[in-house]
Structure formats: C-alpha cells, structure tokens
Write a structure and sequence with these properties.
Blueprint (H helix, E strand, L loop, with lengths): L22 H5 L17 E6 L10 H9 L2 E4 L14 E4 L13 H13 L3 E6 L9 H10 L4 E4 L4 H8 L13 E5 L13 H5 L4 E5 L5 H10 L7 E6 L7 E6 L3 H7 L6 E5 L21 E4 L7 H9 L3 E4 L3 E4 L5 H6 L8 E4 L2 H13 L11 E4 L2 H9 L13 H8 L7 E7 L5 H8 L3 E12 L5 H9 L4 E4 L2 H10 L2 H4 L7 E4 L2 H9 L4 E4 L5 H12 L4
Parallel strand pairs: 1-4, 1-5, 2-3, 2-4, 6-7, 11-12, 11-18, 14-15, 14-16, 16-17, 18-19, 19-20
Antiparallel strand pairs: 7-10, 8-9, 8-10, 13-17
Helix pairs in contact: 11-12, 13-14, 16-18
Bound molecules: S-adenosyl-L-homocysteine (SAH).
C-alpha cells in the first residue's frame, strides 16, 4: 500500500479551497523574504520547504506562503499531495514512494532542475516530507544551489519523529523517563563492520532513541542494541504512516517488537521509538482514540461539493475516499431562468431544497446584473441547515427551516403560510415531486424553475473502484435517493459482493434507504439527522452499539 494512501482520495485540483487555509490566512503578510519581487529579477529563488509528516494541517504558514508564490513545485514521495492545493504552480513529483524503487528522478537530476528553473527566473519550491534537513538530503540540495550562486531559503517542517510521538501519545522527553532524545538513521546496516552507528554508545544513551528508515532492519537494530547491553525489555513502539488516518502503531519491547511489527503487517514509512517514555503512551493517547479512526469511508457527493464531508470524515479520524456518482452542472440553457429573474420580487416565498439550488439561482442573478434586492420581500424557505448556510454566503437569512430536513417536513411547515400565495421552487432537473404535489394541494400558486442539472456519471474513478473491489472501504455514505440509484448502477459484481460484509452502507434518510433497498443495496445504518454529520453519527453509533 502506498504510504500516502489517504491523500490519493482527494482530487488535487488547484481551484478547490483546502482545509487549513482560510481567507484570513491569505491576508497574513508573508514571512518568506521574497524581496526579489520588488526588484526586476533575472534569477529566481529556491525554497526548500518542509511539508511535515502527512497531516495536511501540519505545514507551516511560511511553507504555505512559499507554495502560494511558487511557479514550480518539485515534491517528493513522502509529501501529502493535498499540500499542493496551497499553490497554483506546475507540479512535478520526484518519487512515487520511499526507497530506490520509488525514485522517479535521481538526486543530481533534481538539483539540475532546481538550478535550471531558478536560472529562468522562477520561484521554485522543493517540497520535502517532514523537515528538509532531517535525513532529507535538503542540505545537499542547498549546497548544490549555493555552488551555482542560486539564492535559496530553507523552511523547517515538523519532522516525523516528533509528529509520530505526539500522534501516538508519547512524550520523547517525558521528564520521568528521558533527559535526551536521539534521531538515528536505521538505514545503515549494523551487520556491516563499516557501519557508522556505534551501537555500544547508543545502547548506553541516557534517553529515547528514534530510528528513521528502520523498519527493514528492525531485527538487526534491536539485536545489536540488546547485544550492546540495552535491556531486552526496553519499551519500543513502531509507528507507521504517522499523523495520517491509516496510522498504525504497535507497542512491545526490544525483544518482541520485530515479530509484533511483522504480524501486524506494518509497512514503511515507519519510525521506531525506543525508551521508557513509550510506557506512558496510553495516558496521552488521542489521535487513535477518535471515533472513526482508521475507517475508510466512501463519500458519494458530487466531487465539487465533497470537501466538507471529506473534512468532517478526516476530523473524526477516518480516511475519506471520493466516490462521486452524479455530477452537478449548470442548465444547458439559461433562458427560462433569465426570463424569470425580473419577476422574482413578485413571489411571496422562494423555496430551496439544496445548496445547488441557492447557488444556481443567486449566482445567475448576480451574473445577469441583479443582486439580492431583486428578491424584494420574498420569504425564503430552506430544506435544512446546509442549504441555509449557502443563503448566508449571499447575506440572506432563511425564514423557515423545518425540524426534519426532508421534503415532506418542508411542505408541512410551509402549509400554513402559502394558501393563495405565489411560491417559487428553485430546483434540480430531476428529483422527488413531493413538493409539487403538497404545495399545490395547500393552495399555493407554484412555479418551478430548474437552476441546475443533476446527471448520473457513467463510471466511478478507476483507483476508487479498485479499492471497492478489494473490499478496502469500511463504510460508504449514501446521501440522496438519486445518488443511491446511481451508485448501484456503477457497481461491478466484484464490488457488490463486499457490500454488507466488508463494506457497510449508511443512508442519510428513510427516503434514501427505501431507494437504496429498491435497487438491492443493503443499508446498515440510517441517519436520524439528514446531513453528512448525521451520516457520520450513524456510522459511529453502528460501531458502538448501545449496551
Ligand atoms: N525529512 C523527513 C525524513 C525523511 S527520511 C522528516 O523530517 O521526517 C524517511 C523516513 O522518515 C521514513 O523511512 C520514516 O522512517 C520516516 N517518516 C517520514 N514520514 C513518516 C510518517 N508519516 N510516519 C512514520 N515515519 C515517517
């Protein structure tokens, strides 16, 4: 499994707004000394930036600013590709994964590219995992740049050792257990006489030992330490994919950690922490205790709207995987909408049943020269809080949101207000017709206008379908009847056989459950609040059945 599995589920479109960066962040004045922007320049500059250990939030503000300004980004295999969303530059990956096999470009070639791009006047970011100067060959790149007279800066990053320790609840310098910490490369082969590591000194080091790149040589390292006098019962922890949703950690002693790590199937990138501080990890454990930790969750929302749900999954400890089954597009022809816009103020109520409905109508209004004043005194009804939140983006307040976020409840809540009133429903090209029937029955004069199209996709993304077919997903959230039907159509027989066994389906509402069951999808959990947070709560409840 590639080390950055979690990141591959996110599309790396540079237009999408990433998680950690807010508008406020962008207004912070840059700390990189980009003085060259003030002077006409002939030569660019290279920033060697530490991208941190994997969690995309663990990038420094200075690093993010460098990415934002870069013309070219060269990133290595340990870097989370989500970080690229901070930039708008051309990007090149220099290795696929750790080790010689993953290398796409040799170091000399990387140096040459950095130098060549800077000489063309480009601002270049060399983005590296963790900290660029901790076992990262960043200093070699800096030396190569210096030799050519290329200006450069180095931006530190959070290195894997400190991040892995914190995310497993270990304090490397817990004052009851260690007064020093050593970062060591496990890459050196201890069986070779020429090894640079002095195991005798390491075995007697008065503190915590952290081995980078040590998984392949775990057995050799632990035996060499024991042979040099380190007690065989010294607590030891191996942490794999630290700070990422699929982080795994195994705790044992110097004596048994090799077999424990092997039977747990741990893979690089992994780090080995040795010392008494490992004993107290349970007391400070937090990352692995989150309610959906380690769960791989399929998000079926249309891709351009999936970021919020993905972020929520992530915060709950899960790895989100994008499984869009439908796409949202503007109407092929706006003429009907445009003809209606001048009459908007004639309506008593405007009803929105999705965020897309709000965006479709109000963005078109803006684009055609109108603004919210064109709505006159019309009252605004929304199916739920997510839709109302988009109204707020346009500085509009919802006048009515039903207690239950479904069409029947919306119709019931509107009923007392709409007899003999003019009501407009801004809707999708297809969907349930409950509102049409109910609002008309309540005496409203109803007009419906299609402000966006909702289309079935013809296939799932290939890499995600592979995961489905391997049964790698724990949960899939189905967030509307049309998504459920479309999902069922896109499933292959191999993927389908995992449903209800390895991969469970959660439905956002009873209506979605009925639609899913009608096309043969087994539903294992149903949300009681019809939102994505509600869906996640249903998954959590299914994990922890009430006693
Ligand atoms: N410059 C990087 C280290 C590069 S050497 C840093 O400062 O973190 C690569 C080694 O770092 C890997 O073999 C592994 O031991 C460690 N490593 C990097 N990211 C890791 C992660 N997310 N989890 C566990 N170990 C990691």
């Amino acid at each position: 499994m590639p080390p950055l599995l979690m990141t591959q589920s996110f599309h790396t479109s540079h237009t999408a707004t990433p998680i950690p960066m807010t508008t406020a962040d962008r207004s912070i004045s840059p700390s990189p000394s980009l003085t060259d922007t003030a002077v006409p320049r002939t030569i660019g500059k290279v920033y060697l930036v530490g991208g941190g250990p994997g969690d995309p939030g663990l990038l420094t503000l200075k690093g993010a600013e460098c990415l934002r300004r870069a013309d070219l980004i060269l990133y290595d295999g340990l870097v989370n590709p989500m970080l690229l969303r901070h930039g708008h530059a051309a990007v090149e990956r220099t290795c696929r994964a750790e080790g010689p096999l993953g290398r796409l470009l040799p170091q000399d070639e990387i140096n040459r590219r950095l130098i060549a791009a800077a000489k063309e006047g480009k601002t270049v970011v060399r983005l590296k995992g963790g900290d660029p100067f901790i076992f990262g060959r960043g200093s070699e790149e800096a030396a190569a740049l210096a030799a050519e007279g290329i200006p450069f800066e180095v931006v530190p990053g959070i290195t894997a050792a400190t991040a892995a320790a914190v995310y497993t609840g270990i304090s490397l310098t817990h004052r009851d257990h260690a007064s020093a910490v050593a970062f060591i490369t496990g890459h050196e082969d201890p069986s070779k006489p020429a090894t640079a590591l002095d195991y005798n000194s390491l075995a007697h080091f008065p503190g915590t030992l952290v081995f980078y790149m040590g998984l392949h040589r775990l057995e050799a390292i632990t035996s060499a330490l024991i042979a040099a006098g380190k007690p065989a019962d010294t607590p030891t922890c191996v942490v794999c994919r630290a700070t990422q949703p699929l982080q795994r950690s195994v705790t044992g002693t110097l004596n048994d950690i090799t077999s424990l790590a092997k039977s747990a199937g741990l893979q690089p990138p992994s780090l080995v922490i040795i010392g008494d501080c490992v004993k107290v990890r349970e007391q400070a454990s937090w990352f692995e205790d989150r309610p959906l930790f380690g769960q791989v969750i399929g998000i079926t929302r249309p891709e351009e709207q999936a970021d919020d749900a993905a972020q929520q999954a992530y915060e709950l400890g899960a790895l989100p995987v994008m499984l869009p089954t439908i796409e949202i597009t503007p109407p092929d022809d706006w003429s009907e909408v445009d003809a209606l816009l001048p009459r908007l103020r004639s309506f008593d109520w405007i009803v929105f049943t999705s965020a897309n409905g709000v965006r479709g109508l109000l963005s078109r209004l803006w684009q055609t020269g109108g603004d919210v004043r064109s709505l006159g005194q019309a009252k605004l009804a929304c199916i739920g809080p997510a839709t109302a939140a988009v109204l707020e983006e346009f500085s509009l307040r919802a006048d009515l949101i039903p207690n239950e976020y479904r069409a029947e409840a919306l119709a019931a809540a509107l009923k007392p207000h709409i007899a003999n009133r003019r009501v407009l429903w801004a809707r999708a090209s297809r969907g349930r017709e409950v509102l049409t029937t109910e609002l008309t029955a309540a005496g409203a004069t109803l007009e419906q206008i299609v402000v966006y199209q909702n289309r079935d996709l013809t296939e799932l993304p290939r890499s995600e379908l592979d995961r489905l077919e391997r049964g790698d997903l724990h949960w899939i959230g189905l967030s509307s009847p049309s998504i459920a039907r479309s999902f069922a159509r896109l499933l292959t027989p191999t993927a389908r056989q995992h449903l209800g066994v390895k991969t469970r389906l959660a439905s956002i509402s009873p209506v979605t459950t009925a639609a899913a069951q009608a096309v043969g999808l087994p539903i294992a959990a149903e949300a009681t609040e019809f939102t994505w947070p509600g869906l996640f709560r249903a998954m959590i409840a299914a994990h922890q059945p009430e006693a």
